[in-house]
From TrEMBL, chain A:
<dbReference type="InterPro" id="IPR002880">
    <property type="entry name" value="Pyrv_Fd/Flavodoxin_OxRdtase_N"/>
</dbReference>
<dbReference type="GO" id="GO:0000287">
    <property type="term" value="F:magnesium ion binding"/>
</dbReference>
<dbReference type="InterPro" id="IPR009014">
    <property type="entry name" value="Transketo_C/PFOR_II"/>
</dbReference>
<dbReference type="InterPro" id="IPR022367">
    <property type="entry name" value="2-oxoacid/accept_OxRdtase_asu"/>
</dbReference>
<dbReference type="InterPro" id="IPR002869">
    <property type="entry name" value="Pyrv_flavodox_OxRed_cen"/>
</dbReference>
<dbReference type="GO" id="GO:0016903">
    <property type="term" value="F:oxidoreductase activity, acting on the aldehyde or oxo group of donors"/>
</dbReference>
<dbReference type="InterPro" id="IPR050722">
    <property type="entry name" value="Pyruvate:ferred/Flavod_OxRd"/>
</dbReference>
<dbReference type="Pfam" id="PF01558">
    <property type="entry name" value="POR"/>
</dbReference>
<dbReference type="Pfam" id="PF01855">
    <property type="entry name" value="POR_N"/>
</dbReference>
UniProtKB/TrEMBL annotation, chain B:
<dbReference type="GO" id="GO:0000287">
    <property type="term" value="F:magnesium ion binding"/>
</dbReference>
<dbReference type="InterPro" id="IPR011766">
    <property type="entry name" value="TPP_enzyme_TPP-bd"/>
</dbReference>
<dbReference type="GO" id="GO:0045333">
    <property type="term" value="P:cellular respiration"/>
</dbReference>
<dbReference type="InterPro" id="IPR051457">
    <property type="entry name" value="2-oxoacid:Fd_oxidoreductase"/>
</dbReference>
<dbReference type="Pfam" id="PF02775">
    <property type="entry name" value="TPP_enzyme_C"/>
</dbReference>
<feature type="domain" description="Thiamine pyrophosphate enzyme TPP-binding">
    <location>
        <begin position="76"/>
        <end position="223"/>
    </location>
</feature>
<dbReference type="InterPro" id="IPR029061">
    <property type="entry name" value="THDP-binding"/>
</dbReference>
<dbReference type="GO" id="GO:0030976">
    <property type="term" value="F:thiamine pyrophosphate binding"/>
</dbReference>
<keyword id="KW-0560">Oxidoreductase</keyword>
Length: 617, 359
C-alpha cells in the first residue's frame, strides 16, 4: 500500500519509558538519523538520578525529547507533538505536557491492572476517555517485537528488550529517517553478540514494516533538511564539545592536557571522553576526591601542563580552597562546572544556573576569577578554548559554567577548520626578568599584569610559590599591610583588565527601535532566542543580548543596559545575574526566574517579554 | 621540558637511583650551600625541623640532580615552611593537599624529583585521604612526614598521633582520641617504600633519604621530630643515650632483628612479632629483616612493635618493594596509544562521527 507523505516544517517527539527501556539510546539514535538527514535539531534528555528506580514507577521514568525542523531552531521545544509512552508511568509522567491533538503512541502490553495501579491510575486511560483530546495509537509493542523475533535464537527477555528498536523503527518510518546509521550502530554495538545483533536489527526492521503496512498510520511525514550555513556538520552534546574544546586548547597552546577529576553527574562524560584521547598526550587522573582532582590539575599546571578539572556544584564547593590557591599562585587552571540543581546533592540529573555567585565569590578573601558560560552545546567548544586562552594568557584559574541541559543536550555543530581557531601563545619564562639580573616570579607583564610562568626544569628560575601573601615582584612571603593592599588590588585589576581582551556584547535589535532588552547568560540562550522570535513574529519589538563572559563583563555592558527602558533578565536561579547587574550598574533590571530543573519554555518566556513590553508602551 | 639528557643519577655504588630513572643528571658538583635559599628560617629555636632541613640540604648534592629538576611541595603547618628554605622549585600549598598537588606534578613531569613535606596534622588528619591514595597509586614522589605528635602552628592542640589522654589546650581533661601509627597506616595502603627515622640522627636520616630516592614510586618516611615548644621531649626515650639502645631496633636488610645486645625479635603464634631475650630463645630464632617481602604483613607486624608507646621502636627501612610507578604506567599508556594509533590529529578528531555536508 502506498501511503501519503505529508510535508511538515518541524516536529517535537518525546520518547518516554522506564529507566531500563533504553529510551536515551532510542532518542540518541533517532537524533543521529535526524542529524545525518540534515535537519536542524535540539534535544533534551531527562532521566532520573537513580540508575534503575523500581520498574514501572513514576520516579523511574526516563525520557528523551527531540525537536527537529527544516529551518534553524533554538530549543528542544516546549510541548511534544508526539509522545511515545512505553508504559503507564511514562504516560502519566508526560501526558500533562501534551498539547491538544498530540499523537500518543502507547505500548499496550504494559497497561496491565498491576502497572496501572502502580502509578495510581484507577481506570485505564486508554479506555476511560481521558485521552480524548489526543490521537492515540495503542500498539502492543512488546508482544509484536517478541512475535517478530520468534525465529531468533534469543531468550524471551532479550526479545522483549528489543522493543525500543521496534519503536525506533516505527518512528523512523513515520518521519522518513535514513536508517543506515542505526543499522551500522547496532552492528558495531553488538558485534560480539551476533544473536542479539540480529534480533535488534530485525526488531528495528519489524517496526519500520509495521508502520508501512498498518492502517493505524495513514500518512508519514517529511521534514526537509534545514538550510543551515554551508559546511560539514555533526551532532554534538555540550559535554563532548567541552572535551573537544579542551583538546583543541591543548593543541593550540602546545601544552599537554592534564585532567584531574572525580566522577560526578552530569560532568563525568567529559572525563570519559578525555580518557579516550591519549593519542593527544592527554593525561586523565581519576582522583580520590574533588579536592585531589583540582589539586593534581594545579600541580600539573605548576609543571607547565594545561591543568583542567571538571565537576558539578557539590564538587565546586570542595574545590574552592584550591581555586583560591591558584588565584594566589597565579597559575593557569581551567575549572569546568556543569551546573545541576542544588543546593547540596539537589537534582543531580537536572539543569540549573545557580552556581554563578559561587563561581564569582565562593572563596575566602578577595579572590577574583574569570567566569565564562557557553550558550549552546556547540558553543561549549569555543568557550573551552576561550577558557584556555584566558587562563594561560593571564595566569589565572578560569571557571566555565556549563549546565546539565547543555551537557546532555545536542545540536548540529558546524565543524570548524583548525586554521580558523584562535591562536594561543604561551611563553614560559626562560631567564631573568628584572633590571638587576634576577628572576622575580611576581614581576608582571605591564599589559596583562600576568606574572611569568617559570616551570621546574628551567635553570636559574628556581622559586617558591604558595598560598601565603606574596611580596610584589619578588614573591617572598610578606605580611606587610601596604603590600597586601597592593596585591589584592593588583589581582583584581588583572582580572578586570581581561575586559579589554574580550569581544563586546552584541545586541540583536533588528530595527534598532526596541525599548526592552532581554539579557540572559549561559544555557538559556536557546529558550530566550525562541521566545524573542515569537514576540517579534507577533509584532513586538524586543532586543536580545546574551552574556558568555560573566567575569569580567564585556566592557560595553553598562552602555548596553542603559540603552533600553527596561531590561528583563530570565535566569534558572533566583536572580543571581540580576543582583550583579544592579550592584555593578545601578540598573533596575527585571528578573524572571524559574528553578524547575528544566529549561525555560519559549512560549512562557514570550509571554513574560510581551508583558514587559506592554508595561513600557 | 629540560634540555638535559635523561641520564640517571647514580647511587654511591654507581647503580642508577631507581626513583630518578627519568630525571636528568647534573654536571654541577653541588655543595650543601647551593640548596640554601636566601630566606630567613623562622622555626622556633631548638625545633627539630632545623636538623631535618640541614640533613636534607646536605643530602641533595649527592642526588646528582640539577637543582631546577627538584621540586618540594608542602601543605600547611610548621614543617610545611620547608620549601621556602630550599633553593629548588617549590610550592607551599594548602592544608593537607600536598600529595594531591604533587601527584599532578609528578604524573605529568617524570623528569622531576618531587618531595612532599608534611606533618602529622597535615598528612594524617586533614590530608589523610590524599596521602593514602598517593601511596596506593605509587606515584613517584617522596613523602617526608615530620611527626611531632602535636599541632604546632595553631599552638598546641592534640594531633592524630598524640597519645590518648594527652592534655593540651583543646583537651584539658585529656584527649579521647586513639592515635594513628603512621607506618601502619602507610603499610595498610600498601605503600611500596616505608621507613622511619629521627631528626637528631643525621647519619641515619640521610641514609633513609637516600633509600627513599632509590625507590621508584611513592616513598613514605616518618621522621620523629621534636617540638620543644608544645611537645618537648616527645621522643626523649629514643634519644637518651642511656635508654635508647634498649628501645631502638635498627633495621638492616638481611640482618637479624636485635634490640641492644641481649634482646631480639621472634615470630609469635599469630603472625605477630615478639621481643624476647636472645639467651632464652637462641640466636637462630631471631627474624631476619627482609624489606623486600611482597606481602606487607611482616612490615605491618614490625610497625606494631612500638606498642605500648615506644616500648621498642624499629627505625630504618621497613618495606622496599618494586612495582611500576603510577606516572610510568600513565606515560606507557600514552606512548602505547601513540604507537598503535599514531599521534592524534585535531582536524580528524573534530570531523569524526556521523557527519553531513550542507551547501
Ligand atoms: S611550634 Fe614546634 S614544630 Fe613548630 S616551629 Fe616551633 S618548635 Fe618547631
Amino acid at each position: 500500500m502506498t501511503k501519503q507523505v505529508r510535508q511538515i516544517d518541524r516536529v517535537i517527539i518525546r520518547f518516554a519509558g522506564d529507566s531500563g527501556d533504553g529510551m536515551q539510546l532510542t532518542g540518541d539514535r533517532f537524533t543521529q538519523e535526524t542529524a545525518s538527514f540534515g535537519n536542524d535539531l535540539s534535544t533534551l534528555p531527562n532521566f532520573p538520578a537513580e540508575i534503575r528506580a523500581p520498574a514501572g514507577t513514576l520516579p523511574g521514568v526516563s525520557s528523551f525529547q527531540l525537536h527537529f525542523a527544516d529551518h534553524d531552531i533554538m530549543t528542544p521545544g516546549d510541548a511534544p507533538d508526539v509522545l511515545v509512552a512505553m508504559n503507564p508511568a511514562a504516560l502519566k509522567a508526560n501526558v500533562e505536557d501534551l498539547p491538544r491533538g498530540a499523537l500518543v503512541i502507547v505500548n499496550t502490553d504494559e497497561f496491565t491492572k498491576r502497572n496501572l495501579a502502580k502509578v495510581g491510575y484507577a481506570s485505564n486511560p486508554l479506555e476511560d476517555g481521558s485521552l480524548a483530546g489526543h490521537k492515540v495509537s495503542a500498539i502492543p509493542l512488546t508482544s509484536m517485537t517478541v512475535k517478530a523475533l520468534e525465529d531468533f535464537a534469543v531468550s524471551k527477555k532479550d526479545a522483549e528488550r528489543a522493543k525500543n528498536m521496534f519503536a525506533l523503527g516505527l518512528l523512523s518510518w513515520m518521519y522518513n529517517r535514513p536508517t543506515e546509521g542505526t543499522l551500522g550502530f547496532l552492528k558495531t554495538k553488538f558485534a560480539h553478540r551476533p544473536e542479539i545483533m540480529a534480533a535488534n536489527l530485525a526488531a528495528f526492521q519489524a517496526g519500520w514494516n509495521f508502520g508501512e503496512t498498518t492502517e493505524d498510520f495513514a500518512v508519514s511525514y517529511e521534514v526537509k533538511p534545514a538550510a543551515l550555513p554551508p559546511g560539514t556538520y555533526r551532532n554534538i552534546t555540550g559535554n563532548l564539545a567541552i572535551a573537544y574544546g579542551l583538546i583543541a586548547g591543548s593543541e593550540l597552546s602546545g601544552l599537554p592536557l592534564f585532567l584531574g577529576s572525580y566522577p560526578i553527574t552530569p560532568a563525568s562524560d567529559i572525563l570519559h571522553e578525555l580518557s579516550k584521547h591519549k593519542r593527544f598526550g592527554v593525561r586523565t587522573f581519576q582522583a580520590e576526591d574533588e579536592i585531589s582532582g583540582v589539586g593534581a590539575a594545579l600541580g600539573a599546571a605548576f609543571g607547565g601542563a594545561l591543568g583542567v578539572t571538571t565537576t558539578s556544584g557539590p564538587g565546586m564547593v570542595l574545590k574552592a580552597e584550591t581555586i583560591g590557591l591558584a588565584v594566589m599562585t597565579e597559575l593557569p587552571l581551567v575549572v569546568i562546572d556543569v551546573q545541576r540543581g542544588g543546593p547540596s546533592t539537589g537534582l543531580p540529573t537536572k539543569t540549573e544556573q545557580a552556581d554563578l555567585l559561587m563561581a564569582l565569590y565562593g572563596r575566602n578573601g578577595e579572590s577574583p576569577v574569570p567566569v565564562l558560560a557557553p550558550r549552546s552545546p556547540g558553543d561549549c567548544f569555543d568557550i573551552a578554548i576561550e577558557a584556555v586562552r584566558i587562563a594561560t594568557t593571564y595566569r589565572t584559574p578560569v571557571i566555565v559554567l556549563s549546565d546539565g541541559y547543555l551537557a546532555n543536550g545536542s545540536e548540529p555543530w558546524r565543524i570548524p577548520e583548525v586554521d580558523s581557531l584562535p591562536e594561543i601563545r604561551v611563553d614560559f619564562a626562560s631567564g631573568p626578568n628584572s633590571e638587576d639580573g634576577t628572576f622575580q616570579p611576581y614581576l608582571r607583564d605591564p599589559e596583562t599584569l600576568a606574572r611569568p610562568w617559570a616551570v621546574p626544569g628551567t635553570p636559574g628560575l628556581e622559586h617558591r610559590v604558595g598560598g601565603i601573601e606574596k611580596s610584589d615582584r619578588t614573591g617572598d612571603i610578606s605580611y606587610a599591610p601596604a603590600n597586601h593592599d597592593l596585591m589584592v588590588r593588583t589581582r583584581q585589576a588583572k582580572i578586570d583588565g581581561i575586559a579589554r581582551d574580550i569581544a563586546p556584547l552584541e545586541v540583536d535589535d533588528p530595527d534598532g527601535d526596541a525599548d526592552v532588552l532581554v539579557l540572559g547568560w549561559g544555557g538559556t540562550y536557546g529558550s530566550i532566542g525562541a521566545a524573542v522570535r515569537r514576540v517579534r513574529r507577533a509584532g513586538g519589538r524586543v532586543a536580545q543580548a546574551h552574556l558568555r563572559h560573566l567575569n569580567p563583563f564585556p566592557a560595553n555592558l553598562g552602555e548596553v543596559l542603559r540603552g533600553y527602558d527596561r531590561v528583563l533578565v530570565p535566569e534558572i536561579n533566583l536572580g543571581q545575574l540580576a543582583l550583579l547587574l544592579r550592584g555593578r550598574f545601578l540598573v533596575d533590571v527585571i528578573g524572571y526566574t524559574k528553578v524547575r530543573g528544566l529549561p525555560f519554555k519559549a512560549e512562557e518566556l514570550a509571554g513574560v517579554i510581551q508583558e514587559v513590553i506592554d508595561r513600557v508602551e | 621540558m629540560s634540555n638535559n639528557p635523561p641520564v640517571s643519577p647514580t647511587a654511591p655504588n654507581g647503580r642508577p637511583l631507581r626513583g630518578l630513572k627519568l630525571v636528568p643528571r647534573s654536571d654541577t658538583a653541588y655543595k650543601m650551600k647551593d640548596f640554601k635559599s636566601d630566606q630567613e628560617v623562622r622555626w622556633c629555636p631548638g625545633c627539630g625541623d632545623y636538623a631535618i632541613l640541614a640533613a636534607f640540604q646536605g643530602f641533595l648534592p649527592e642526588l646528582g640532580v640539577p637543582r631546577e629538576n627538584i621540586v618540594i611541595v608542602s601543605g600547611i603547618g610548621c614543617s610545611s615552611r620547608f620549601p621556602y628554605y630550599l633553593s629548588t622549585y617549590g610550592m607551599h600549598s594548602i592544608h593537607g593537599r600536598a600529595p594531591a598537588i604533587a601527584t599532578g606534578l609528578a604524573a605529568s613531569r617524570p623528569d622531576l624529583s618531587v618531595w612532599v613535606i608534611t606533618g602529622d596534622g597535615d598528612g594524617l588528619s586533614i590530608g589523610g585521604n590524599h596521602l593514602i591514595h598517593a601511596l596506593r597509586r605509587n606515584v613517584n614522589i617522596n613523602v617526608l612526614l615530620f611527626n611531632n605528635r602535636i599541632y604546632g602552628l595553631t599552638k598546641g592542640q592534640y594531633s592524630p598521633t598524640s597519645e590518648t589522654g594527652k592534655i593540651t589546650k583543646s583537651s584539658p581533661m585529656g584527649s579521647p582520641d586513639s592515635p594513628f601509627n603512621p607506618l601502619s597506616l602507610a603499610l595498610g595502603a600498601e605503600a611500596g617504600f616505608v621507613a622511619r627515622t629521627i631528626d637528631s640522627d643525621r647519619k641515619h636520616l640521610t641514609g633513609v633519604l637516600r633509600a627513599a630516592a632509590d625507590h621508584e614510586g611513592a616513598s613514605f618516611v616518618e621522621i620523629y621530630q621534636n617540638c620543644p615548644i608544645f611537645n618537648d621531649d616527645a621522643f626523649e626515650p629514643l634519644k637518651d643515650p642511656a635508654e635508647r639502645d634498649n628501645r631502638l631496633l635498627r633495621l638492616e636488610h638481611g640482618e637479624p632483628l636485635r634490640i641492644g645486645p641481649d634482646r631480639g625479635v621472634v615470630l609469635g603464634d599469630y603472625g605477630e612479632l615478639v621481643v624476647a631475650d636472645i639467651a632464652e630463645v637462641g640466636e637462630e630464632r631471631l627474624v631476619r629483616h627482609d624489606a623486600h617481602r611482597a606481602d606487607p604483613g611482616y612490615a605491618f607486624a614490625l610497625s606494631r612493635l612500638d606498642q605500648p608507646a615506644f616500648a621498642h621502636v624499629p627505625i630504618g627501612v621497613f618495606r622496599d618493594v618494586e612495582r611500576p610507578s603510577y606516572d610510568r604506567l600513565m606515560a606507557d599508556q600514552i606512548s602505547e596509544a601513540q604507537t598503535t594509533q599514531g599521534r592524534g590529529d585535531l582536524a580528524s578528531l573534530l570531523a569524526g562521527g556521523d557527519t553531513w555536508t550542507v551547501g
